[in-house]
Amino acid sequence: MEKPIEHHDEPRLSGAAIKSYASAAKIIDELLRHWWRDLKDIFKGAATKVSSSNSGPFHDFYEHLLAQGRKPTMARLTLARKIAAITLIVWKKEVHFDASYLKSQAA
To answer: Exposed, middle or buried, 81 (CB in 10 Å: 0-12/13-18/19+)?
Structure first.
């Protein structure tokens, strides 16, 4: 039987905050619950940086969204979500980034 994850007022990424007996899914859920705002800010910041750059596959994806008639704010939101999805793919599958991930589904 798995031991429950300990809850703290100030979550820390350490062995004391997350029991080693917890499954990977429970750990991810716990991290997302406590760190959601930070993760959201990271992906939004990355999308903002990419949207103001001059080249690269993410910038091309952003420009494509604008060409489709999306408002810049919505294009950045879509880009942030795409960056988050690709980050999850790269992390879970332990693969390197491939620009084809940007074309994997219609935006």
So the answer is: middle
Number of residues that this document lists for the chain: 107
Q: Tens digit of pLDDT per residue, the chain (107 long)?
A: 455 555 544 455 555 444 444 566 666 677 667 777 788 888 899 999 988 888 888 899 999 999 999 999 999 999 998 888 888 888 888 888 877 777 745 44
Asked whether the beta carbons of 52 and 24 are under 8 A apart, the reply is no
Burial of 94 (0-12, 13-18, 19+ CB in 10 A): exposed
- What is the C-alpha separation between 50 and 60, in angstroms, rounded? 9
Report pTM. 0.62
